[in-house]
Specification:
The complex is a heterodimer of chains A (about 210) and B (about 80). Chain A is built from twelve helices and no strands. Chain A is mostly helical and about 210 residues long. Classes of the chains: A mainly alpha (about 210), B mainly alpha (about 80).
Chain lengths: ~210, ~80
């Protein structure tokens, strides 16, 4: 019972010591713990943790880096929650923060630029997996097990991986992904297209190795 | 190039494939694509495969946020000195 009293006294003496303007400003700020808008934001943001995590896992180099990335993104989101416009897509807003942090990290690591140059057509994997004459699509899809899919995704360089991940895992529309990445919609579509082609080629290689 | 051997309607369908699977086409465009798919089993199978690819990617990445991290996020939220 004594501790709260002591704390209150310490606060009072601190308030006396600080310049008046500082303590006045602090008193004017609504307590975030009771601000209904803040509470709603917190609840909605935390409910999206699975979505943010899934995207982060594919953007970060490993598990620990993904944890750090999500924590950093949420810390930034909570700090700047007032800049979120209520009623807009909070998932897209959070993923934009995540993207910016991932880009910063990638720059620090100075990753090599993507080597693409693949122009296999869209039926590439389908055909290589035995699609002609028409095979059972479900069987083909079954052959694409999670491990190789994750490996193939990890092999994609960040600009292409981000688009695939934001659209396929983050459930963003082309326009929302374009807003997050600050690139034109056409660039989203072309990166998505090329990113998926690279994925298909990698998966076809894997499937052939598996059956060789 | 295997694309050269395919008839024009199939090539058109291929150009729309990504946006179709991502549900980014207009109602009219969807109708055009679906009319072709209804009469072209090869393209229909390929579309199914493309859609299946998305499912495979989603399933491979379906990993919930770990409880420890979720707890950490709540702590960050509680400790945040927001602007």
């Amino acid at each position: 019972m004594e501790c709260p009293t002591l704390v209150a006294q310490a606060d009072r003496s601190a308030a006396d010591w600080y310049p008046r303007s500082v303590s006045d400003d602090a008193a004017d700020q609504p307590d975030p713990a009771v601000d209904p808008a803040r509470l709603a934001f917190d609840e909605e943001a935390l409910a999206l943790a699975d979505d943010v995590w899934r995207v982060a896992r594919r953007l970060a180099r490993d598990y620990q880096a993904a944890e750090d990335l999500v924590q950093e993104a949420y810390a930034r989101a909570f700090r700047s929650w007032r800049s979120y416009e209520s009623g807009t897509n909070l998932r897209a807003w959070l993923l934009r923060i995540l993207h910016n942090l991932a880009i910063d990290n990638a720059r620090k690591q100075q990753r090599a630029p993507e080597q693409l140059g693949l122009e296999a057509d869209d039926y590439y994997l389908y055909e290589r997996l035995g699609g002609n004459p028409i095979a059972d699509v479900d069987v083909l899809v079954e052959r694409l097990s999670p491990g190789p899919v994750l490996d193939a995704l990890a092999e994609l360089s960040l600009p292409f991986r981000e688009v695939v991940v934001l659209v396929d895992l983050g459930d963003l529309s082309y326009q929302e992904a374009a807003d997050v990445l600050e690139i034109p919609v056409g660039t989203v579509m072309s990166r998505l297209h090329r990113g998926r082609r690279v994925l298909k080629r990698a998966l076809a290689d894997h499937a052939e190795e598996g059956t060789a | 190039m295997s694309t050269q051997a395919r008839p024009e309607p199939c090539l058109q369908a291929e150009r729309c494939m990504q946006a179709y699977v991502d549900r980014a086409l207009s109602v009219e465009e969807v109708r055009t694509v679906e009319e072709h798919l209804a009469v072209c089993p090869t393209c229909a199978k390929c579309y199914s495969f493309e859609a299946g690819m998305r499912t495979v990617v989603r399933q491979a990445c379906d990993e919930p946020c770990p409880d420890s991290l979720r707890a950490q996020l709540k702590k960050i939220c509680a400790d945040c000195d927001c602007e």
